Predict the 3D structure of the following.
Amino acid sequence: MRLFSDSIGRKMVMATTGLLMVLFVVMHLLGNLTIFAGPNGINAYAEKLHMLGGLVWLTRAVMVTAVVLHLVISVQITIENQAASPTRYAVDRKLKATFAGRTMIWTGLILGAFIVFHLLQFTFRATPGLVLGTDAEGRFDVFSMVRAAFQAAPVALLYLAAVVGLFLHLSHGVQSTFQSVGLNNSTTLPRFGAGGRLLSLVFLIGYGSIPALILFGVLAK
């Protein structure tokens, strides 16, 4: 329980869950990019995931737990910091932190809410207006479902906004994670910062290109 009450313990939980989520985001992006191979590409990928069954659901359970822990502890730390010295904390943060750093708690909350929506839409398929069917091979037609969803401007713009939130969150969060585990000397920290911004840019382009290209009719079939 000291992991959740001790300052060092909470930093370790934040760092561990953060790294888990970054790894998942990388793997999820690689899977999503199969949509550029057309219907057969992403439908075959989705079918292979479906065949893994319990392993996929175990991974989802681990990641949901990681997201919840990450959000709860970050909110707790933010409240404690502001309560400890609200004026000095606010001034120091504005002077030292970047925009991405100052908005970490807000982009984190936005991403948490977006994850819930994303799961409801494409995992549980509980949102209205989805196109559900099978392709010529008898597989669930993920391509048509995603394409139809992103052809609606509000949905595509919502996903693009979430991708921007992810970009901001990770452009600061990757560096912060390594700083939390003690890798914060003058040599390594700038490198982690640059690496985090580069990785965030890759996510921005990779994830953002899908709803954008579908919305503008480039990725039509």
Notes: Residues 213 and 219 are 5 Å apart (CA to CA).
